[in-house]
Amino acid sequence: MNLEAYLADRRAFVDAALDRYLPAVTARPERLHEAVRYSVLAPGKRIRPILVLASAESIGGSPDSVIQTACALECIHVFSLIHDDLPCMDNDDYRRGRLTNHKVYGEAMAMLAGDALLTLAFELIAENIATVAPDRIVTALKLISNATGTWGMVGGQVVDIESEGKQIDVETLRYIHAHKTGALLTVSSLVGAVLCGADEAQQAALQKYGKSIGLAFQIADDILDIVGDQEKIGKPVGSDEGNDKATYPKLFGLDESRKMAHEEVAKAVAAVEGFGEPAEPLRAIARFIVERDL
Ligand code: IPE
Ligand code: IPE
Ligand code: MG
Ligand code: MG
Ligand code: MG
Fold this sequence. Notes:
It is a single chain. By secondary structure, this protein is mostly helical. 71% of the residues lie in helices and 1% in strands. Helix 1 packs across helix 4 (67-85), helix 2 crosses helix 6 and helix 4 (67-85) packs antiparallel against helix 9 (170-195). The radius of gyration is 18 Å and the shape is globular. The chain binds 3-methylbut-3-enyl trihydrogen diphosphate (IPE) (2 copies) and magnesium ion (MG) (3 copies).
């Protein structure tokens, strides 16, 4: 399959939907909506919403029927990025090729834009009831809230911050990556299929796929923070070193980290082997995650 064309097509679909679902800049409070749209509609890869669509597709479901939940995952992700860049966290000035939200709108507005996005996400998932049975929506709400909060992304961010400047062990590093990044990617890989009625075996396979690509994704992110091109990644190179972060390259070196990321991708591809042709996008996305330079 032509991954580039697939990703471009899906990105356009997601971008158009996000534009529809986000509050208009003319709605009060205008400045907040400007701040929200500034960060969400900036050029992102849209990996999480695209995974939701590909997950639905992998079991023969319709991507159209899960687009609201796909957009919800992007809203949660952007909330995490806006807060991650704040001076009290990673203190970064650039994101997606633009000044970070707080640099343009101030810290209070950036914090509130994140809050608004997190809550908008759950409104969108609830609204997906128009095309999905209520019991599946409730399951999705449970999975996504679990992956976002203290058992997932927020938990990982906390240990990431606590580990700055410390010599940490492999187990803690794995916890950080599996939670701060892995949890949202795992739930994105799973929830599209859950909304389309995946059985338990399919869910277990997609969860396995998601865990592996989630870890691979953050290892690749750590590597790009060292060897990436700022123009391409749209955010500063060397941020992790500056903050003395716990990363894979710091613990294992670049070559070993690359090897580990590729091993995770192989595991992810194998996990959805039984899905056949409809899971081809998932397999291609898995490879893209370690081969990307952005
Ligand atoms: C960056 O995510 C933050 C991490 C969890 C590593 P992405 O690399 O998906 O960023 P965008 O959405 O493309 O900007
Ligand atoms: C991703 O970790 C954490 C998030 C949940 C946003 P990073 O702090 O490494 O992400 P980037 O490199 O700033 O995108
Ligand atoms: Mg961070
Ligand atoms: Mg960061
Ligand atoms: Mg990073």
